[in-house]
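Forum > Structural Biology > Help requests

Title: Can anyone predict the 3D structure of Type-5 uracil-DNA glycosylase?

Hi all, first post here. I have the sequence for Type-5 uracil-DNA glycosylase but no way to get a structure on my laptop. I'd be grateful if someone could post the structure tokens.
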Amino acid sequence: MLNHPRTGQPFESPVPPGSGWPGDPATPATPQAADAARVARLAEQAESIQELDALISVCRACPRLVTWREEVAVTKRKSFADQPYWGRPVPSWGSPQPRVLIVGLAPAANGANRTGRMFTGDRSGDQLYAALHRAGLVSQPTSVDAADGLTSNGVRIIAPVHCAPPDNKPTTVERNTCAPWLDAEWRLIAPHVRVIVPLGGFAWQTVLRLLADRVPKPKPKFGHGVVAELDSGLRVLGCFHPSQQNMFTGRLTPAMLDDIFSEAAALAGLSG
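Reply #1:
Sure, ran it for you. Structure tokens for Type-5 uracil-DNA glycosylase below:
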């Protein structure tokens, strides 16, 4: 058993529900989805973001992902050997009534799977949160762990897959199993969202599926900075994924991220 690096509380890896991990939305009584059918039923019944986050955080519907995320939480990367790992599905993070919605891909094995917060603990997250802070959408430029005090200003970060997948590649079956969680989340937050920022082409396609009844034809194609205007004033704003490769090669730069999130904040009425 290890202590949480910030709170000093002892934790096992992976973290049991209701153990006191900072921000853990679940309790030992939170129902666990053991298969795709149970995911669909629980997601449909969720009545609040808080309830949905709790249900997601204890899901065990994909055996391959459960095995992988928990194995990583026990073996750990050498540089994090002295830290406990979350080792569970990572719920979305941010405002329960967001005006800006950011859509990623899946948690990183030694990033969010370690910290328990979406896009935290790896270089992609470092770039993302720094840009969000410069745009005034989060309270600080760094996101270290779930106890670092970071707060959201009208933004929420979600992903179509909530468990860290081997080689960062969930299977089609795993994506489909996780999809009802995303559908339920959109049902709960849709009235508030004004701008959606998909990070990369796959996230763009995920958003178009989510909004299928509102997408014009022909379907808008992904591109960095592309804005698709849907009905009711909703806009989808494309952004390259802030992956280490994209940032290292210069395909995406901090200035380009700043342009995207400054525009998102302005379109959502969160700037100035």
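The chain has a mean pLDDT of 95. The chain has one domain: 2-267.
Shout if anything looks off.
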